[in-house]
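Researcher: Let's walk through a ligand-bound prediction step by step. First, I give you the protein sequence. Second, the SMILES string for pyridoxal-5'-phosphate. Third, you return the three-dimensional complex as structure tokens. Ready?
Model: Ready.
Researcher: Here are steps one and two:
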Amino acid sequence: MRRLSPAMLGDGNVAGYRPLREAIANYLGTSRGVNCSPDQVVVVSGAQQALDLIARIVLKPGDAVWMEDPGYIGAIHAFRNAGARLIPVRVDERGFDPEIGRKACPDARAVYVTPGHQFPLGATMSLERRLALLSWARESGALIVEDDYDSEFRFTGSPIPALQGLARSEAVIFIGSFNKVMFPSLRLGYMVLPASLVDPFLAARFQIDRYPPGLSQSILCDFIDDGHFGRHLRRTRELYSAQLTAMHENARRYLDGLLEIPSIQAGLITPALLRNGMTSQQAEQTAAKHGIESMALDRFVLSRTDIHGLLLGFAAFNEGEIREGVIALATALGSCRPDSR
Ligand SMILES: Cc1ncc(COP(=O)(O)O)c(C=O)c1O
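Model: Step three, the predicted complex:
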């Protein structure tokens, strides 16, 4: 990959607006325990662009990549597009299990994880497993891709610091998104790269779409520097926490025996596990007929057959709407026995 000439760099916009990169590095250091300088921060259009860049720049066809199973479909697509060989690694209540990856394919080139809030099942990766993953990456030279997509939204207990902050010599690419924290159409996110990868990523990014839109970057930067971002996070954390509580309470009341929502206190969406014998697809279609939009959990599966449930959003609805939605879902799932289909 060609190194960037000063002319290509222009005023530094390829990696993003410099004051925004400083604000991001500062925020990540204090709030997420990420260890980085602004020079390692590259502004992108979102976590998805970061994943696409990683797939294009780091992976070669045939490279093995450990993937969470179930896991984020956008990462699965990005890595498949690069011709990578995906190695499913089962997640459980302690998150991703590196021991399974070691047994299946010890010399994988990379691993993709969502340790703060596993997508879609919601677990937090245990410290023991984080250290085991880092130790494997150190020995094998593999790259860790840490997707921290919505870790700002943790409603109880202390925030869980990033895996990247525990790394020493291991190569970790840390990805985050303002599209979750602010609003999806903002299309701004960031990656924190090991120093040796900054130039190759900037050169590739320049060839793809030059650099991110300056106007929205400078507005976002002022929003952070003037303290609005911190206030926004505190307010939305409180709001979404109340909405998730409403979801849990209504689910206990109306969905008993049909759908069980784990007690995880984080995020903008929650998994819900079917208890009525339906498959994920049957439940998604039945819910849709009753006006409820959800996602079948088996959309995110690589090789597992034991996942039967739905992904439900709660952040976009007030408590009254959540109650109505849960009642409609209970009517849908209760009215339709799987064996009568
Ligand atoms: C786990 C995960 N990673 C990445 C993304 C992509 O985020 P962005 O909208 O910032 O591209 C999403 C979006 O839903 C996601 O759920």
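Researcher: And what stands out?
Model: The first helix runs from residue 6 to 9. The chain has a mean pLDDT of 93.
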